[in-house]
Amino acid sequence: MTDQIQKKYWDYGPLRVSENGRYLRNGNRPFFWMGDTAWLLFQKCSEEEALLYLKNRKEKKFSVIQATLIHTLDGDNVIWKNEMLRSEAYWDHVERIVDLAETCGLYMALLPCWGSFVKNGILTLEKVPEYADFLAKRFGGKKNIIWLLGGDVRGDDGLDVFRAFGTRMRELFPDCIIGFHPFGRTTSALWFHDEPWLDINMFQSGHRRYDQVMLNSWDDNLAKEGNFGEDNWRYVERDLARTPVKPVVDGEPSYEQIMQGLHGPDEPFWQAWDVRRYAYWSVFAGAFGHTYGDNSVMQFFCAPAQKGAFGVHKYWPDAIHHEGASQMAHLVTLMESADYQNGKAAQERISAGSGEQYHRISVFEGPGFIFAYDYLGEPFSLNLSDLADRNVEAWWYDPACGVMSYAGRVHPDACTAFRPVPKYTNANDWVLVLRF
C-alpha cells in the first residue's frame, strides 16, 4: 500500500497575512507559528545532526525554526571578510540544511546576519545590495523561507541599513514574510511599524524577572520603551493597538534552562512552567503564535571543551527532549481545535479572581469557544450572562500533558465561578476550555 503524501504548509499557498491583519495563513488555511530558537544551527551542526534536530522539532509540532546565516566573526565559519562573501562550501551546507527543513515540512526564519554586524559597521548601507542579491541567488527558489532582519539589536543602531535591507529584500522576495528580531524588551514596531516591507511585528520579551527590570547592565532598555517585566502580553496589546494593525509574536521570551536575568551565576534557571506561561499569555492576548527557546539548543552546546554561555549545563542532544519543548505542542493542538483567527483577547469576561503578575487570568474568545489560562490554578469567575440560553460545556486542559478533562455543563450567569483542581506539583497551571 502506498503511503499518502502529507501536504506541507506551502502546498496550500504562500504564507501571507490574514485579512484581519492579525494572523498568518497559507492560502485559506490558518498557519499557527510555533517557532524554535536555533541561532547557531548552521555553524554548529553537521547535516546529520541538523536532521536529528529538525525531525525532533517537527514531531513536537514546531512549524518555524529561527536561525542565523552569519552569526559571529570568529571561527572557521566566518562568511564576511572585507568586501566579499566567501566559503562556497559553507553556503552549500546551509542550503542543504534548509532543504532538509523543507523535507520535514518546516519553515526556516533566516536572519541574514546577527545585528552586531550592522551595529559595528560591518554590514553597511553600501554592502546591502550585494548581500541581498546574493541571498536571492541562493534562496530565491525555496518555498520554506521567512526573513528576519535585525538579530538582538535595536533598530536605531542602524536605521538606514535596516530600512534599505528590508526594501531590497521585499523586492527580491515578494512572496516571503519579512520581520525584524529586536533587542531585549523592545519591539520592531518602535522603528519599523510603518515600513511597507515589514509584514509582522516581533518583540523580545527577554529573560528577566519582574524584579530584574534594570540591572545596570549593557542590555538594559529604555524605560520609555516599556518596562513590562515578565508581562509579555503587554507587548501584544500595545502592538495590536497600532495602526495599521500587523500580526505580533514574541520572538524571544525566557528560554528553558537559562539563568534568570542572564548575568547572575547564582540565579535560578527558567523552567518548563515558566515558558508555558509566556506562551499562553502572549497567544491569548492575540499573538499569531509563539517562539520557544532552550538555552542549550539555541547555542547547540555539546563539546566538553566548548565554552558555553548563560550558565548552559546540558548538551543539546539531551536538551531537545526538555519538557517545555514537548509541551508547546499542546498549545498548538488547543489553538488549532478552534477558529482562533477570528478570536480575540476577552479580559472583559473576568468578573472576579484575576490579579497582577502571576495572578493574571488570560482570556481568549472566538466563535463557539472561550479559553482562560490560569498560571497559579487559583479560583476565578467569568461573566457569561450573554450565554444564558446556550449549551455551554467545560473542560480543564492541562498544558503540561495535553489532557482534556471534561468538567460538565456550565450554568452561565454574570459571575460564573471556576476552581481548578490542585495538581500534585507546584506547577499548577490550567486552561479552562468552554465550548458552546
CATH homologous superfamily classification of the largest domain: Glycosidases
Q: What's the shape? A: globular
**CA(first)-CA(last) distance:** 41 Å
Which CATH architecture of the largest domain is right? Alpha-Beta Barrel
Derived from helix and strand composition plus strand pairing, the structural class reads alpha/beta
Major sheet: size, sense and barrel closure?
6 strands, parallel
**What is the C-level CATH assignment of the largest domain?**
Alpha Beta
Helix content: 25-40%
Q: Looking at the chains present, what oligomeric state does this protein adopt?
A: single chain
State the domain count: 2
Enumerate the spans where pLDDT stays under 50 for 5 or more consecutive residues: 75-84
Architecture blueprint of SSEs:
Layout: E1 15-17, E2 24-26, E3 29-31, E4 33-37, H1 41-44, H2 47-59, E5 64-68, E6 80-81, E7 84-85, H3 88-104, E8 107-111, H4 116-119, H5 128-139, E9 145-153, H6 159-172, E10 178-182, E11 186-187, H7 189-192, E12 201-204, H8 233-240, E13 248-250, H9 272-284, E14 289-292, H10 295-298, H11 316-319, H12 323-336, E15 344-345, E16 350-352, E17 361-366, E18 369-374, E19 380-382, E20 392-397, E21 404-410, E22 416-418, E23 430-435
Parallel strand pairs: 4-5, 4-14, 5-8, 8-9, 9-10, 12-13
Antiparallel strand pairs: 1-2, 2-3, 6-7, 11-12, 15-17, 16-19, 17-18, 18-23, 19-22, 20-21, 20-23
